[in-house]
Amino acid sequence: MGAQLRVYRRRMRSVKATKKITKAMELISASRIVKAQQRVAASTPYSRELTRAVSAVATYSSTNHPLTTPHPNPHRAAVLIISADRGMAGAYSNNAVKEGEQLVALLKERGLETSAYLVGRKAVNYYKFRRRPIAGSWTGFSDSPTYENAKEVADALITAFLADAKSDENGVDEIHIVFTEFQSMLTQNAMAKRMLPLEVIESDAPVAIGLLPMYEFEPSAGTVLNALLPRYIEARVFNAMLQSAASEHAARRRAMKSATDNADDLIKSLTRLANAARQAEITQEISEIVGGADALASASAGSE
Amino acid sequence: MTLNVELVSPVQRVWSGEAQMVSARTIDGDLGILTGHAPLFGVLVDGQVKIKGVDGSVTEFSVRGGFLSVSKDRVSILTESVE
Questions:
Q1: B36 φψ region: left (φ > 0), alpha (ψ -120 to 50), beta (else)
Q2: Does residue A12 form part of some domain?
Q3: How many domains does chain A have?
Q4: Tens of pLDDT along chain B (83 residues)?
Q5: If 0-12 CB within 10 Å is exposed, 13-18 middle and 19+ buried, where does residue A262 land?
Q6: ipTM
Q7: Which residue segments constitute the domains of chain B, with CATH numbers given?
Q8: Does A135 contact chain B (CB < 8 Å)?
Q9: Which of A149, A222, B50, B66 is most buried by its number of CB atoms within 10 A?
Q10: What is the CATH number of the domain that holds A137?
């Protein structure tokens, strides 16, 4: 076998091995998207009821709860960025981190300091590489977050929010979240939202809240709000994590699908090249034999 | 007239359907809800939630904290974890 042919064959083998891996990853992600979507759907009733309740309490009570009133002159804001633990998902983590950068720039324009809370190894590495301070980081659960994970993150955020931003360097006056919204298998959008202080309740959420009843609060509106708001933040963080997980799987599936397609193309063109090389080798061999036979024939003809 | 009850946790909808009566323990004490109850929003403590179905059978859940909201014969119980 000729040297050139051997090189082509070797490259084909390596591309084929890569293709097997990417194909497997594509299939795994495809099956996990479905599961992740189901988890998003399963968590929806809880967060819908909670949103409804928070709307009701915030609308009908005149309590000046720190979690609902915007700070008159905010000093520092927390930015929670949700990214992936692993790569191979195209621009997924990059998009989330970029969206976070834009948000940080926007907050800086308003004269706010920012402290970074990061979920997922990719965002942590991005900040570590640039030697930026990290206020809190959590890794290891980006592809299937549990409620406990969300609770841990939310607890840290609420603690920071309740601390005084002026005197305590960990305290914040606003909490923003950057996550990847799962719109469909094909579209996922990185987006930034303010979690605290509460926005004019979730006007963008497609939830038909309807007319809210005049609730009686037990024991009192203030107590209810105190108990309700941490749960609300947890539920929002959890929902953002689940959507991000679904988006991560969708992004990975797409990236791996195009990698598989590219490997296919590469194998096809390498096969062509290898075939041409083999044919050239055969042609050369034949012409060598013919040439040799000719030389022999003319040599023996001359000796007679 | 029956109550429309939903018991939900962050990870799933645990129970939903029609019921005659719901009882749960709030910070202020035990609370029973029948049809026609005034709109109410209560904070639950760890304890039992009992749902009496239309056929009279009682389903019990033990919840770890949560909330209970009642409006127009619609009862929703939100809890962090159910056993």
A1: left
A2: no
A3: 1
A4: 889 999 999 888 888 899 999 999 988 888 899 998 888 888 899 989 999 988 888 999 999 888 898 888 889 999 988 87
A5: middle
A6: 0.84
A7: 3-78 (2.60.15.10)
A8: no
A9: B66
A10: 3.40.1380.10
